[in-house]
């Protein structure tokens, strides 16, 4: 798995490529959580290249969501694959995130 990152204005867009499982999920989590520790984090997770995520990745997403809530915001997920969306819905976690059909829409939501 690799993590592509780009900055769009003041928003960091993280694009993991590959399944978020085991060590890859942990690596991705550390990358995201590090960014969320900074002041005024604006983060979008573009998930179009993530075919699957496991419980460790879900735990990381919940930690990231909690950090965003502490800063009066929500974690924004864009382009979530149907399988990942279903996993989040079946586990009852989908309500913890803001979902967007396109990364650009998620980025614009910060304006």
H/E element order: EEHEHEHEH
Strand neighbour order, sheet with most strands: 1-2-3-4-5
How far the N terminus sits from the C terminus, by CA atoms, comes to 31 Å
CATH homologous group name: STAS domain
Summed over residues and divided by their number, the pLDDT gives a mean of 91
Fraction of residues in H or I helices? 40-55%
- DSSP, total strands: 5
CATH topology: Transcription Regulator spoIIAA
Question: How would you describe the overall organization of this protein?
Answer:
This protein is 41% helix and 23% strand. The protein is of the alpha/beta class and 111 residues long. The chain has a single domain (2-34, 41-108), classed as Transcription Regulator spoIIAA (2-Layer Sandwich), CATH 3.30.750. The chain has a five-stranded mixed beta sheet. Helix 3 links the parallel strand 4 and strand 5 (97-100). Helix 1 packs parallel to helix 2 (55-70). The longest helix is centred in the middle third of the chain and has 16 residues, at 55-70. It is globular.
């Amino acid at each position: 798995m690799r993590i592509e990152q780009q900055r769009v204005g003041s928003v960091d867009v993280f694009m993991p490529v590959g399944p978020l499982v085991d060590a890859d999920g942990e690596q991705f989590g550390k990358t995201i959580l590090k960014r969320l520790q900074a002041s005024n984090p604006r983060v979008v997770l573009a998930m179009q290249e993530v075919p699957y995520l496991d419980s460790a990745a879900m735990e990381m997403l919940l930690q990231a969501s909690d950090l965003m809530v502490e800063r009066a915001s929500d974690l924004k997920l864009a382009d979530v694959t149907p399988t990942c969306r279903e996993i989040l819905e079946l586990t009852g976690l989908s309500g913890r995130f803001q979902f967007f059909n396109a990364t650009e829409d998620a980025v614009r939501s910060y304006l």
